[in-house]
Specification:
The complex is a heterodimer of chains A (351) and B (525). In chain A, 76% of the residues lie in helices and 0% in strands. Chain A is globular, with a radius of gyration of 21 Å. Chain A has a domain of 223 residues. In chain B, helix 18 crosses helix 19. Chain B is built from 19 helices and 24 strands. Classes of the chains: A mainly alpha (351), B alpha/beta (525). Chains A and B meet through helix 9 and helix 10 of A and helix 11, helix 12 and strand 20 of B. Chain B: Pfam families: ABC_tran. Chain B: Belongs to the ABC transporter superfamily. Chain B: Its main location: membrane. Chain B: One of its GO terms (molecular function) is ATP hydrolysis activity.
C-alpha cells in the first residue's frame, strides 16, 4: 500500500462518521432539539465517569468478536450475514452449560463454557458453509434462515427447558461469570468483564492466523481468486467450510461474552442479537483490519452507551436511535463515500 | 498545407506517474486516410498514449493538435466530440441487449423522452451498409461471434461520428478467418476517408494492414517508418532495441522414457458433452510435444483433465509411471508436474496478492517458505527476489501486487514459479499469447532449455508458428481427438491447416500434392 491509499483508508471511515454526526445534528435540529446539548450529553454518557467508560468497553467487547468473525468470512470471499444467529447459538449453549453445572470450579467452568459457545457458533455457521461448499447454495439466504431457526430454538429452550414458562433464565452462578471484582471496582461498578481480554487476545490470534499461517494464506487466496487457488492445489471447499466455522466461532464467542459477562442469563428475544449486525458494520468501518475493528468497535460502544444519556436532555429515545442509525448508515455506505472522494480528488486515474 | 495533412499530431507528450515516465517526449503524427500502427513491447507506453488521446488520462506536458488546431482533451466526451473513437480490446458490450441497443447506448435518439427505435435502426443500417458490415441489428450480443461483437464496437464508434478510430490489439481474440475480414473492414474504412491507429505487437499484421508505423520503446518514440520499406525483422529489432530471432535455435531432441501417458481419455465439457474423445498421447522425457488445433476442439479440457482440474470420465492418465487419473491438483504438482495455465489472470495468478506471494503459491506449505504451518515471509521474499532476478521479471519490487505487472512479466513470473520446482513434466498452454517478440523469444528459449535438461514438455497453442518453432512432435487435435502426429521438419502450415480442419493425414498429404501438381501444371500452360 502506498501513502496516498493509506491516507484514503483512514479518511473514508473518518468522513463517514463525520457525515453521520452531521446528519444526526440535522435531525435533532429539525425535531426541535439542540444538537450541541445532545452530543454533549452523548459524550458525558460515554466518558463522563469511569462507569461510563467501563460500559463503552463492555459494549465494544462482543462487537470486536463479531466484527472479527465477519472479516474472516469476507476475507475468504463470502458474506456471513448470520453472525447474530451464531452469536445466539454461543450464548444459549454457554448459559445452558453454566446452569447445568453451576458448582464446577471457575477455572474449569468458564473455559468450558467459552469453548462450547465457540463450538456452537462454529457449528451453526458450518451448516451454511457446508451447503455452500457442497451445493453452491447462497450463504446469505442460508444464514438468514438459520438466524430465525436459532432464535426460536433459543426462545423455546428459555421458556420450556431452562425455566418453567418464564421469560428469562435464572442468573448463572458466580463460578460461570466473566465479571470480576477487580474490573467492577476499576470501572466504577460497570459490567465490564474478562470478555474484553478474550476479545483482545482474539484480535492478535486472528491477525497472526490470517497473515502468518499457511491456512490463513489459503483462505486469503481462495477469497481473492478461487480459480487460481484450486489450480495451486488448495481446496476451495475445505477453506469455505473452515473460514465459515472460524467466523461462526468468533460470533459464538461474542454471544458467550453477552451471556456470561453482560447479562449473566438469557431471556426471550424478539430478534436475533444486535451484536450480529452491528459486528458487520464494525468490520466494514474498520476495513476488515484487526486494529480498525478494535477502534470502530470502541466507536460503536461510545455511540450506544453515550446515546442512552441523550434522553437526559429530553431527547426521546427514538431520536437517539435515529441519530445513532444515521451514523451507522454513513458507515454502511462508506463505499459510496470512497467513490465520491475519488471523484473529487484532483488526480486522475492511475495506470 | 500542413493543416490538412495530419489528422492528429501529438507532440512531445510526457506522462509521468510519480517518478516513472510512462511516456517521455513521444511524438505521433497520423495522416488523413492512413492506417497507422503503434508498435511496442508490453508496457512500452502504447496504452498510456492512446488513453491520453481518448481523454482518459491527461498528459503531464506536450501538445495535441487535431487538423492543425491545438486541443485539450480533458475527458472522453470531448474526445468523442473531436471524432476520436476507441475500439477496445475487451469489448464493452451488454450481453443481453441487441446489437442495435448496444450501438445507441449512451446516445439514444429520442422522441419526447422515448427511445426512437425506428430512427435508431435506420441510422444503424445506414452506417453498416455504407461500410459493408453484415450485421443483424436485432440479434442479441450473447448469440453472436467474437468477430461480430468487434464489428458492433466499430459501428458504435462510427455511429457516434468518429473520424479517427483507435484499435487496441484488435486481433488478439479473433480467428485467422476473422482477422482477414477485419483487415478488409479497416481498408474499407480508410477508403471512406477515416483514419485508423492500430495498437499491436504482431508484426505480420502491421505488414498486412498498416501504411506507416511508429515504434515506441520504454516510453519513448523511437522512429516512424513506412511499412513498405522495412522487413518484419527490422520492425522487431526497432521495437525491442536489439536483434531478435523469430526462430529459437535448438538441437535435435533426445527423448527417453515416457513421463506422460494418456490412454483412451474421455472428458466432458461444461455442458456435459464429450470434449475429449478416446484420446491417446505420450510425452517422453527430453521432447516437446506441441498440440495444434483450432480453439474449442478439446485442448482446454484435455489439459484440465491431466492437471486435475476437470473430471476424467474414462481412460487413464499416467505421470512418471504413476496412475494420476482424477488425482487432485496438489497430488499432480507433487508428482513433479508443472502447469502454466491457459488463462494466466484467472488461474495463474491471484492478482491482488503480491508478486512474492504469487511466486510462493505452489510451494508455500513446504520448508523453507513455511515451517509447521507458519509462513516465513523472509524466505518467501528472498525466494521471489531470486526468481525475479533469474527470470528477468520486470517489476519495481517483489511486494507490488501481481496486477501491477504487464502481461509479459506476469507470464514470466508464472513460468519462473513452475520451472523453479524442477518438474519432470511441464504442461504449458498458450505460453506466449498476447506477448511481444522479445518475451516470446525468452519463453521459447526457457522451454527448449527444459527439454534439453531431460524434461517432458506438452505445449498447447493456437499459434502455428509457435508450434512449428518449438515442437519436436506435433499432435493435431480436432473434435476431441488427435487426428495426426507429424514431424515439424516434414510438415508445413498448409498441411497442419488441413489436419486442424479434420482432414486425415493421408488425405491431407494427397490433397496437397495434387494442388502442387495442379499449380505446377498451371505454370506450364
Amino acid at each position: 500500500m502506498n501513502n496516498s491509499s493509506r491516507i484514503k483508508a483512514l479518511a473514508v471511515p473518518v468522513v463517514s462518521v463525520l457525515a453521520g454526526l452531521i446528519l444526526g445534528a440535522v435531525i435533532m435540529v429539525v425535531s426541535g432539539y439542540s444538537p450541541v446539548e445532545g452530543y454533549q450529553a452523548m459524550l458525558r454518557g460515554a466518558f463522563g465517569r469511569t462507569y461510563n467508560i467501563g460500559e463503552v468497553f463492555r459494549s465494544a467487547t462482543p462487537l470486536i468478536l463479531t466484527g472479527l468473525g465477519f472479516s474472516v468470512a469476507s476475507t475468504a470471499g463470502f458474506f456471513n450475514i448470520g453472525l447474530a444467529g451464531q452469536a445466539l447459538a454461543g450464548w444459549i449453549s454457554a448459559i445452558w452449560l453454566a446452569l447445568t453445572f453451576p458448582d464446577l470450579p471457575k477455572i474449569i467452568l468458564v473455559p468450558l463454557c467459552i469453548v462450547i459457545g465457540a463450538l456452537a457458533g462454529a457449528l451453526w455457521a458450518g451448516i451454511a458453509g457446508f451447503f455452500k461448499a457442497q451445493f453452491g447454495t447462497s450463504e446469505v439466504i442460508v444464514t438468514i434462515m438459520l438466524n430465525y431457526t436459532i432464535l426460536y430454538i433459543s426462545n423455546h429452550l428459555v421458556r420450556y427447558v431452562l425455566t418453567d414458562n418464564k421469560d428469562a433464565t435464572p442468573k448463572i452462578s458466580e463460578n460461570a461469570s466473566l465479571r470480576t471484582e477487580f474490573l467492577r471496582n476499576l470501572s466504577g461498578g460497570s459490567r465490564l468483564n474478562m470478555g474484553l481480554f478474550l476479545a483482545l487476545i482474539m484480535i492478535v490470534v486472528i491477525w497472526i492466523f490470517m497473515k502468518k499461517t499457511t491456512v490463513g494464506f489459503e483462505m486469503r487466496a481462495v477469497g481473492m481468486n478461487p480459480f487460481a487457488s484450486e489450480y495451486a492445489g488448495m481446496s476451495a471447499k475445505k477453506n469455505i467450510v473452515l473460514a465459515m466455522m472460524i467466523s461462526g466461532a468468533l460470533a459464538g464467542l461474542g454471544g458467550v461474552v453477552e451471556g456470561l459477562g453482560t447479562f449473566e442469563n438469557l431471556y426471550i428475544l424478539d430478534a436475533a442479537p444486535a451484536i450480529g449486525f452491528d459486528g458487520m458494520a464494525v468490520s466494514l468501518l474498520g476495513g476488515g483490519n484487526p486494529i480498525g475493528i478494535l477502534l470502530s468497535a470502541i466507536l460503536f460502544g461510545t455511540l450506544k452507551t453515550g446515546g442512552l444519556k441523550m434522553s437526559s436532555v429530553d431527547i426521546p429515545n427514538e431520536i437517539v436511535d435515529v441519530v445513532v442509525a444515521s451514523i451507522i448508515f454513513f458507515i454502511g455506505i462508506s463505499f459510496a463515500i470512497r467513490y465520491i472522494m475519488d471523484k473529487f480528488s484532483p488526480k486522475k486515474g492511475e495506470v | 498545407m500542413e493543416e490538412s495533412h495530419y489528422v492528429i499530431e501529438m507532440e512531445n507528450i510526457t506522462k509521468a506517474f510519480g517518478t516513472f515516465k510512462a511516456n517521455d517526449n513521444v511524438n505521433l503524427k497520423v495522416k488523413k486516410g492512413e492506417i497507422h500502427a503503434l508498435l511496442g513491447e508490453n508496457g512500452a507506453g502504447k496504452s498510456t498514449l492512446m488513453n491520453i488521446l481518448s481523454g482518459l488520462l491527461e498528459p503531464t506536458s506536450g501538445t495535441i493538435r487535431i487538423h492543425g488546431k491545438e486541443v485539450d482533451i480533458a475527458n472522453p466526451t470531448i474526445a468523442n466530440k473531436l471524432g476520436i473513437g476507441m475500439v477496445h480490446q475487451h469489448f464493452m458490450l451488454i450481453d443481453n441487449f441487441t446489437i442495435a441497443e448496444n450501438i445507441i447506448l449512451g446516445s439514444e435518439p429520442t422522441n419526447a423522452g422515448v427511445i426512437d427505435r425506428k430512427k435508431a435502426l435506420k441510422e444503424i443500417t445506414a452506417v453498416s451498409d455504407r461500410y459493408g458490415f453484415k450485421i443483424d441489428p436485432s440479434a442479441l450480443i450473447s448469440n453472436i461471434s467474437v468477430g461480430m461483437q468487434q464489428r458492433v464496437e466499430i459501428i458504435k464508434t462510427l455511429y457516434r461520428g468518429a473520424d479517427l478510430l483507435i484499435f487496441d490489439e484488435p486481433t488478439a481474440v479473433l480467428t485467422p478467418q476473422e482477422i482477414e475480414e477485419l483487415i478488409e473492414i479497416m481498408h474499407g474504412l480508410v477508403a471512406e476517408g477515416k483514419s485508423i491507429i492500430v495498437i499491436t505487437h504482431k508484426l505480420d499484421e502491421i505488414k498486412a494492414v498498416a501504411d506507416r508505423c511508429t515504434v515506441i520503446r520504454r516510453g519513448k518514440s523511437i522512429d516512424t517508418v513506412n511499412v513498405a520499406d522495412v522487413s518484419p525483422q527490422e520492425l522487431a529489432d526497432l521495437m525491442v532495441g536489439r536483434s531478435v530471432s523469430f526462430k529459437t535455435p535448438k538441437g535435435p531432441a533426445a527423448p527417453t522414457h515416457p513421463v506422460l501417458k494418456i490412454k483412451d481419455l474421455v472428458v466432458k465439457e461444461n455442458r456435459g458433452l464429450d470434449a475429449v474423445k478416446d484420446l491417446t498421447l505420450e510425452v517422453r522425457a527430453g521432447e516437446i510435444v506441441g498440440v495444434a488445433g483450432i480453439d474449442g476442439n478439446g485442448q482446454s479440457e484435455l489439459l484440465q483433465a491431466i492437471t486435475g482440474m476437470r473430471k476424467v470420465e474414462s481412460g487413464t492418465v499416467e505421470i512418471n509411471g504413476k496412475d494420476a487419473t482424477n488425482n487432485r491438483p496438489r497430488e499432480i504438482t507433487e508428482n513433479s508436474t508443472a502447469h502454466v495455465p491457459e488463462d494466466r489472470q484467472k488461474y495463474g495468478l491471484v492478482l491482488p496478492m503480491t508478486v512474492s506471494e504469487n511466486l510462493a503459491i505452489q510451494t508455500y506449505y513446504k520448508a523453507p517458505l513455511s515451517k509447521s504451518g507458519f509462513l516465513n515471509y523472509k524466505s518467501i521474499n528472498q525466494h521471489a527476489r531470486e526468481l525475479i532476478e533469474e527470470f528477468d521479471v520486470r517489476t519495481s519490487s517483489e511486494l507490488v501486487p501481481a496486477s501491477a505487472l504487464s502481461g509479459g512479466n506476469q507470464q514470466k513470473a508464472i513460468i519462473a514459479r513452475e520451472i523453479d520446482r524442477d518438474p519432470d513434466l511441464l504442461i504449458v498452454a498458450q505460453p506466449t499469447r498476447g506477448l511481444d517478440v522479445g518475451a516470446i523469444e525468452y519463453i521459447h528459449k526457457r522451454l527448449i532449455e527444459q527439454r534439453d535438461r531431460g524434461k517432458g514438455v506438452l505445449c498447447v497453442s493456437f499459434e502455428l508458428d509457435e508450434i512449428l518453432n518449438i515442437s519436436d512432435r506435433i499432435a493435431v487435435m480436432f473434435d476431441g481427438r488427435i487426428v495426426g502426429i507429424v514431424d515439424p521438419q516434414e510438415t508445413n502450415e498448409q498441411e497442419l491447416g488441413l489436419l486442424m480442419a479434420g482432414v486425415p493425414l493421408a488425405e491431407a498429404r494427397q490433397e496437397l500434392s495434387q494442388t502442387v501438381a495442379q499449380e505446377g501444371a498451371g505454370v506450364d500452360e
